[in-house]
Amino acid sequence: MTVLRRVGVRVAWLLGSLLLASFLIFLATNKLPGNIAQVTLGTNAGPGEVAALEERLGLNRPFLLRYVEWLGGIVTRFDFGQSYYTGAPVSPLIAARFEVSAWVIAFGMIFAILIAIPVGSYAAVRRRHLDGIAVSALSQVGLAIPAFWAGIWLVIVFAVRLGWLPAGGYVSYWDSPLDWIRHLILPVASLAVVQASVISRYVRSSVIDVLHEDFFRTARAVGWSRIGALWRHGLRNIGISLLTVIGLQLATLLVGAIIIEQVFALPGLGSALLTAVSGRDLGIVQAIVLLLVWSVLLINFLVDITYQIVDPRLRRRAEAA
Amino acid sequence: MRRSRSFVGMLLALALAVTLSACTRPEPKEETGRELNIGATAEPTGLDMITVPGAGTPFVLLYNVYETLVKLDSEGTIKPLLASDWTLSDDRLTYTFSLQNQAKFASGAPVDADAVVKSFDRARADSATDSIKAKWAAVADVEAVDVHTVKVTMSRPSNEWLYDMTGPAGIVSDPSAVADLNTAPAGSGPYTFVKWDQGSLLRLAANPSYWGTPARFDPVNFRYYADPNAMNTAMLSGQLDIISNLTVPQSIGQFADSSKYTTYEGTTEGEVVLGFNHETKALSDVRVRQAINHAIDRKGLINSVWGGKGTLIGSMVPPTDPWYEDLSQAYPYDPAKAKELLTEAGVASGLTLRLRVPNLPYGPTAGRYVAAQLKEVGINVALEELDWPRWLDQVYGKHDYDMTIVAHVEPHDLSAFAAPNNYWNFHNEEFNALLVSADEGTEAVQTEDLKKAAKLLSDQAAADWLFLLPNIIIATPEISGIQENQVSLSFDLTLLAARS
User: Its GO biological process terms (chain B) (predicted)?
Assistant: First the structure.
């Protein structure tokens, strides 16, 4: 099978999954028990208001038609529908919230990688020494800590006790770059610490594998230092498996960010989702859930594709089959 | 070895960066002085109180950005605001309001009779929410007599109407405002709207041309927290001056240090009601309902469910209403008496009732407590937790339940028991007649009749009023003027000041 063909099959799978996910999300939010309009408006709403909202949202029209229109709006115009409550379009809201989540997730991942590679390599190279074992044990501990727990402790220490950093909230970069950084440090740190533990363990085991490879021994024999040989040959070889891990972790980071946004009162997608769920604004709920699910599917797809293209061994195996 | 040293160096640099950024932080409140940060949980869903329902909007805008002809003071009494005074005709059908001469909107336009009539017409129009329109149901006509006089003609006398004019239904907005009021509120209050970052912050600034006592804080930030614990840590770390309502009373201990925090405990309008379905056969018998009232130790319930905070009321009236009467001892905790009443009613054994509670903060815990206590007197309780939409659909909408627990937070909601299709299936002609005569009568008659109506509910054991939700506010000691009791929908900034 050619690379192109295999990519084609995967794209088809991706499109199918995206479509199925959108259908299930729309189905679930629309077929939940209870009259959506009554649920949205709450106890104070009179029958007139309920009927008016049903009319405005088109809830009295056929389900499939509404689904097709909703999906069509997203695909053709990036129109994610409207808030069931205020009738305002959801897309600008999502765009504003996405900015916050994107920064937290991106910085969380970047710092996690920056910490994980040296820490993991160090733990591998020094694995028979006390300090290497200690680093390894420490990352095991980090693995067991949920990000929100780390967040709560960081708040207690750096915000409540020391008063160095704000306990929560968000300031846009354009309003004040310094405040923007100060508000991002703790949430990013709590995500990065946990992610770094996960990734550093992969780095450690991959590096250990590399240390036993022939090319590594050769490099050492021609005079490279251990660190130098690792830098020159090792990291390139663990790159691919690291990429997979990072891709998978990005998906868990999305979920972790939802909780972290609550802890730090960040106005991101996660907190928008929770507010919408508690306020039963299903228009916003289905838009954000769709965006999250699609992101996870896309990330997995990209990892898969890159893996296929980059790793010649996989290519050969697939061609043999 | 060299590598490991550079790694340690990198860590040090990272630590230094954090420390440096901490050192350069701006001093929060000492320096800027009169900036005020208020933590809140219920965010507005839109900014136009006339077309968007919900309590989040008036909380921020009422009395602060928008003003009304009359307002509620902290005792719950109706006082003049944009109207310097008003008269009521002898037949109680014509209100004549004289407007403050110097009042003007933030835009500089005068608050005249024309602006009032336009605002009131907007509240009566179809685009207004049902609940706003309902408050105008007793009004036949609104007209401008001259520039500073407005006449309101009623189709029937109504005390409740003037009271409702102190709330969102009575706000006067700037008719010269060109932008959409749902995104850019325009009123005559001491504050103007600056911006709303949805999900995070709503900012008000002092209105420099305010006609009355000028604003004491500038700017004022309402900061929103979906998670009450995040709000608590923001207060603990000095990001907030006020927590406007502590919704987790169990966490009040965090603010015990009186040198840093002042705690205010007052009442709200939120009655937590153990409601009975009067159409359930057993519960249609007043003796069974009274037995349940005797069987539950409400003091114990508050202690276990709501951190000991809350008020015992015994009927559908909070202590801040003029017709409040303490009926909390009408059915003292007395399991023996409860058993006696159940025997009289012929249901001493084998009675099973379905208690369906919404999964709101108080629901499931209160439900378990009630179930345990009713078991003591021989009533089996099948407890079921419903998420809020299902509760609304099945309990509130379809009346499919025997007992339920929910908080009723609207002011003056005694009338809920008179609504034609109320979810308790409570129907009592005498009660309905009392409400009508209270609305149409003089102030004295109103107080008298509503007292009787509340007593009637208690005598009938129409429900079991478990407790009144507390209003717990935390503030730094330098803030004064905090209202302990939440009597209106507004978080009234005009009462606040900073001790310096």
Answer: peptide transport
